[in-house]
Amino acid sequence: MLLRRHRGPARLWVAVAVAALVTGAILLWSSSCIGLLGTYRVQDSVVNELWRTADSDGWRASSAPRTYWPPPPNESESNGYLRVRCNGGLTQQRSAICNAVVVARIMNATLVLPELDTNSFWDDESGFVDIYDVRHFIKTLKYDIRIVMSIPNITAQGKTKKLRAYKIDPPRDAPVTWYRTTALEKIRKYGAIYLTPFSHRLAEEIDDPELQRLRCRVNYHALRFKANIMKTSSDIANKLRSEGHFMSIHLRFELDMLAYAGCFDIFTPKEQEILIKYRKEHFPEKTFVYRERRLIGKCPLTPEEVGLILRAMGFDNTTKIYLASGKIFGGKRFMKPFKAMFPRLENHSLVGTGKPEENTRGLAGSAVDYMVCLLSDIFIPTYDGPSNFANNLMGHRLYYGFQTTITPNRKTLAPIFMDREEGHVSGFEKRVRQVMFNTQFGAPHKRIHPESFYTNSWPECFCQTKARNHADDCPPDNVNDVLESQFQNKRKIYRSGS
């Protein structure tokens, strides 16, 4: 089994759920119990407890509709074709795909398989069909929207030609009303529209919980990586777990993030020139004061700071760690202290099998990192600001069992680290522990702005088997059969009418 947990019966369902994800056997309307709705008494927690999750208390993930969900339109009923170009990194694109499905549903439109803008960010030629299982994507969403591979040709006045999509740059975080008015008017007029760029082009907070659940169906069920990526991820996770638990760390100490954050003072003059140049080329010009940025938690943690946090929490040098990151800016100079504290470091290049160059570079490499982090016993994001990779992973781990996530509070930790740098080391580890054990560790909590829906889909995408409140009731186990029946009935009506 891909995920053989050494955590006792309380975690058996986690192994089943995640293993099913990797093998592609997860059923969309599964009624298997997932997770715990409870709160850690974090001040009493010890390291051994962090490798575990608690009892489910009847709560499980569920993105099934709670109300009548009409089948998608057939070809003649569709308002037109929707094309989107998803830009950004892997999980930014992933969120855009989820939004595209929701927008197609809102407009009663047919979705053309989303395009991935991989060249500008990744410098490779990968597209949707190279990263995701297209057949699974279309099959899983057949009750929600109609999906085609490309816009078909049209015949007019005896001539056949390609239907051209009208190009629109949607507003950032556009409300549902924009798609029901402006975008709908254009798609009806032209027959097809092309929304580009399509990153963050639909508001995350939507009043309709069914549309939010559709987002979860896309993100956690329909978007499955291709078999070669899943196998590489599975092999890596199996190797890492062959000797026990392992944690994954998304070490966001990379050129783009450091330039974005404006935290330059710890680097050499030459390195600062590189960061400043990158910032001018990619971000709005702004003057930063390093100390001020750090004190408000805007500076990514250094590798050494991550190591000091883990050591203060009680993790020792036998802890196996998988690093998900790009090229660490500053290189060996910054990694050396971390490696001295935690020598058992791995990444997809070191632990992969077969021909890692085929599955661990560019967008595919990010997909492997994503899956291994999803499968790890503990996940630690070191910078959860605009880093969609970390945000989406936290949401995915929440959905598949409230798995442990340790999120350092950079703002609260900053003065502690700054005191240490000035020679005030007395009580350092105790102060760090007080901060770190006063956190959620992945336990469910109500989503509060500015927390992203993709980080925490509670409560829309969860239910309780024996709910105290009616609103928390789980949908019937046969919901998939109900939707299938609705879908087939509509088809029969359409055929008889034609």
From TrEMBL:
Keywords in alphabetical order, please: Carbohydrate metabolism, Fucose metabolism, Glycoprotein, Glycosyltransferase, Membrane, Signal-anchor, Transferase, Transmembrane, Transmembrane helix
Protein name (record): O-fucosyltransferase family protein
At the top level, the lineage of the source is: Eukaryota
Membrane topology summary? Single-pass type II membrane protein
Q: Name one GO molecular function term.
A: glycosyltransferase activity
Task: Quote the subcellular location field of this record.
Answer: Membrane
Q: Which family does it belong to?
A: Belongs to the glycosyltransferase GT106 family.
Biological process GO annotation list?
Answer: fucose metabolic process
* Record region (Disordered): 58-77
Q: Which Pfam families match?
A: O-FucT
CDD domains, sorted: O-FucT_plant
State where it is primarily located.
Answer: membrane
Q: In which pathway does it act?
A: Glycan metabolism
Query: What PROSITE patterns does this protein's entry cite?
Result: PROKAR_LIPOPROTEIN (PS51257)
Q: Which InterPro entries match?
A: FucosylTrfase_pln, GDP-Fuc_O-FucTrfase
PANTHER family, per database record: O-FUCOSYLTRANSFERASE FAMILY PROTEIN, OS02G0726500 PROTEIN-RELATED
Where are the membrane-spanning stretches?
Answer: 12-31
A single GO cellular-component term from the record reads: membrane
